[in-house]
Design goal:
Number of domains: 2
Number of strands: 0
Largest sheet: none
Order of helices and strands: HHHHHHHHHHHHHH
Radius of gyration: 25 Å
């Protein structure tokens, strides 16, 4: 979605930054940056924006139709609008009601006749939604800082999961192990520093390489993966279990970095450039 398309949609929705941000589950600052073109609108938000547009048009069509309201459906919509979370059982119950209620069916047919069928997007699982929320916060940062922020969050999470069992073991041994526990708690923050370093490797080395003709995306992929792998090696070395302990390990480490870097360059950077080119040609 381009900045111009977003501006047209905002005119149709007649929502403030705060109202739209609440509907999307993001910060209002991000909406403002979308509006003035400082940050491109990520594709993951396009389906949500189109869904809000559809709902707004549907409400307008129904308001002019004179059709009766369904109190059950109105109650569900009011709860969702207030930010209340419906349980799985409540969602299933509401879905069954809409399918069986003559009033709801009549209103749905009227909307379809006037503005067509809603385009549905696949709902992600909880991990997808968490990652999406994290990405929305990263979008508020300067472009050069986003890879570092995401890399820091990624390595923090990986190492935090890894130290759970050792940490529990230390705490079970008794209070006299408290210093060891505190030292272990500092490891994820060290990992975050390593992840940030890997992200800066992409920002200042990988991203400029993407402009190299033909080989650019692949070079960027290799540099990016190598930066994160080097950060991981540093973190695991601090944990006392380095990945490289022999020449053969180094060969595997370098070979893996190059291989997965080429895969990233082909499937991520090159595909991204192709998509941008196709969109510009439309």
């Amino acid at each position: 979605m381009t900045t111009q398309e977003f501006a047209v949609l905002r005119t149709q929705l007649q929502m403030s930054d705060d109202e739209l941000a609440k509907r999307l589950g993001v910060r209002s600052q991000l909406i403002a940056k979308w509006g003035d073109g400082r940050i491109p609108i990520a594709e993951r938000f396009e389906d949500a924006l189109h869904a809000i547009e559809y709902d707004t048009r549907a409400e307008s069509v129904l308001a002019a139709s004179g059709l009766p309201h369904c109190s059950v459906a109105d109650d569900v919509r009011a709860r969702i609008a207030s930010g209340a979370a419906l349980t799985g059982a409540e969602v299933r119950s509401a879905t069954r009601h809409v399918r069986r209620c003559p009033t709801c069916q009549a209103r749905e047919r009227h909307v379809i006749d006037h503005i067509g069928v809603r385009k549905t997007a696949t709902r992600g699982n909880i991990m997808t939604r968490v990652v999406g929320q994290a990405l929305s916060y990263a979008d508020l940062l300067p472009e050069w800082a986003r890879p570092a922020a995401l890399g820091a969050a990624l390595l923090f999470g990986i190492v935090a999961v890894r130290i759970v069992i050792p940490l529990l073991f230390i705490l079970v041994l008794g209070p006299h192990r408290l210093i060891g526990a505190l030292q272990l708690l500092g490891v994820p923050f060290m990992a975050a520093l390593g992840g940030a370093a890997g992200g800066f490797g992409y920002s200042f080395l990988g991203r400029p390489l993407r402009s190299v003709p033909v080989a650019g995306p692949y070079l960027a992929g290799v540099v990016t993966v190598s930066a994160y792998m080097a950060a991981l090696e540093w973190v695991f070395g601090r944990l006392g279990s380095p990945m490289i302990t022999a020449t053969s390990d180094l060969i595997i480490f370098l070979g893996g970095s190059v291989f997965f870097g080429l895969v990233m360059g082909r499937m991520w950077f090159r595909a991204d450039e192709t998509a941008v080119t196709q969109r510009a040609a439309v």
